[in-house]
Write a structure and sequence with these properties.
- The chain is α/β, with parallel strands linked by helices.
- The protein folds into two domains: 30-372, Alkaline Phosphatase, subunit A; 383-445, Arylsulfatase, C-terminal domain, CATH 3.30.1120.10.
- The chain has eleven helices and 15 strands.
- It is globular and about 60 Å long.
- The model is unreliable at 1-27 (pLDDT under 50).
- The structure holds calcium ion.
- Calcium ion is lined by residues 38-39, 78, 226, 283-284.
- Residues 38-39, 78, 226, 283-284 line the site of calcium ion.
Length: 466
């Protein structure tokens, strides 16, 4: 054999492998989109068993991607749950552990220097946008989205403002855009020529189009189907024999679904679908009691499969509809019971993007990268949640299939076996003192005391004088 020729072949092989390696690293910097719905019940989605409300796009996303039955939010109301998603911290370490209102507009802000998924991806040159609802600090505060790593913001900053779907203004970055003709009503009735989600959806598609050539991160926090029953068109449900609220609610869920579908279609059209991890979930469980007209008609607990709803530490408050979609990378049609939680998102994005967490940044999460690609859920010691509302603090923890709930620091620990009793109907605490002791130790060791978030018992309701 001619040695020169052999050498050339080796050189060519080396060059080819280098070339391929560089091409490979280019395609392994995926785009990230997290679509967050607001107060959606797991049981509202067809793929989870919903029969009356149409969600064809979410159902397609589940068929083309993976559906999780035990995806957990950060906690069971808006602002702290969103903080967990963006910071990679659970409620034992989160700087925000409740919805705390600031007047005249906004919520308690993220503290200065809070590290986020968006800041992480900025270190890798990603374009970043938060579109929809924020709730973690007004623009003049340390918690502004524009100080949290996002290049662009569009939508509602304040959660109370988002109670109107016909608001008199929205924000483009930190600039107010007046929406002439809208009444801004936060009650059942809301009127005006501009349904906010129309603008929010249009802005989202426009931003993705404009950033199709750059790696990007889009945090798309759609307000639907939260709070007030306001929709501009009852659509499919107009002639159903239901109350106006039931029709409006169903139409809001279907509108959410429709706008998810438009985004997935755009990714396909732009050829970005195979290079974009899209995850869909909800920030907390349904805001409706299962016995309410919404809970009952739409069977939001799926025949009592999940107990509780928003503001409770039972599974109905914490387990969300959760889907991931990345054709060619996330297995199609997989249904996984592997548990995971919002605080896993930051380490997942770090692994998939190749971004390194700064040494001072701690996360409570585990990377889901192998799990999303078809492997098992990460092994971990425990999950932890807490919430401070109504003058009291509630906590929950999960390890293996055991779930502990404590509805106040002086309240007894309740213990459930999620494997045999996912509906949390049988409190086993009396018969399992060893596990109760373990739960107590997890509830204590998972949290760092914070003067903003002391553990307190709710005061007993005072009887009103007749
Ligand atoms: Ca919410």
């Amino acid at each position: 054999m001619n040695p020169h020729r052999h050498g050339w072949k080796r050189f060519t092989a080396l060059a080819l492998s280098l070339g391929l390696a560089s091409a490979f690293s280019a395609v392994t910097r995926p785009n990230f989109i997290f679509i967050l719905s607001d107060d959606l019940a797991q049981g509202d989605v067809g793929a989870y068993g919903q029969k009356l409300i149409q969600t064809p796009n979410l159902d397609r996303m589940a068929r083309e991607g993976t559906r999780y039955t035990q995806g957990y939010c950060g906690t069971t109301v808006c602002a702290p749950s969103r903080t967990s998603l963006l910071t990679g911290l659970h409620m034992g370490h989160s700087p925000i552990r409740a919805n705390r209102e600031i007047q005249p507009e906004g919520q308690k802000p993220l503290p200065a220097g809070t590290f986020t998924v968006a800041k992480l991806l900025k270190t890798e040159g990603y374009a970043t946008a938060a579109i929809g609802k924020w709730g973690m600090g007004m623009f003049d505060s340390t918690g502004s989205p524009l100080k949290a790593g996002f290049d662009h913001f569009f939508g509602y900053n304040c959660q109370r403002h988002a109670h109107s779907y016909f608001p008199t203004y929205l924000y483009h970055d930190d600039r107010r855009i007046e929406l002439a003709g809208n009444d801004g009503n936060k009650g059942v009735e809301g009127k005006g020529p501009i349904y906010a989600q129309d603008l929010i959806a249009a802005r989202t598609l426009e931003w993705v189009r404009a950033h199709k050539d750059a790696p990007f991160f889009l945090y798309y926090a759609i307000t639907l189907p939260h709070a007030t029953f306001q929709i501009d068109d009852q659509g499919l449900y107009r002639n159903k024999p239901w109350t106006a609220q039931q029709k409006n609610y169903a139409a809001m869920v279907t509108r959410l679904d429709h706008d998810v579908g438009r985004l997935l279609d755009l990714l396909r059209e732009l050829g970005l679908d195979k290079n974009t991890l899209v995850m869909f979930s909800g920030d907390n469980g349904s805001s409706f009691d299962p016995k309410s007209e919404i809970g009952r008609l739409f069977d939001q607990t799926m025949g009592g499969r999940l107990r509780g709803f928003k503001r409770s530490m039972y599974e109905g408050g914490l387990r969300q509809a959760a889907l991931s979609w990345w054709p060619g990378t996330v297995p199609a049609g997989r249904v996984s019971e592997g548990p995971w939680a919002f605080w896993d998102y930051l380490p997942t994005v770090a692994e998939l993007s190749g971004a390194k967490l700064p040494a001072h940044v701690k996360t409570d999460g585990h990377s889901l990268a192998p799990f999303l690609k078809g492997g098992p859920a990460p092994v971990r010691d425990s999950f932890y949640w807490e919430l401070h509302e109504g003058g009291g603090s509630i906590q929950a923890a999960r390890w293996d299939d055991w779930k502990a709930v404590r509805n106040g620091p002086s309240q007894p620990i309740e213990l459930y076996d999620l494997k045999t009793d996912p509906g949390e109907t049988m409190d086993l605490a009396a018969t399992k003192p060893g596990l109760v002791a373990k739960a107590e130790s997890i509830l204590k060791s998972s949290r760092v005391d914070d003067s903003d978030w002391p553990l307190t018992d709710r005061k007993p309701a005072v009887k009103k004088k007749q």
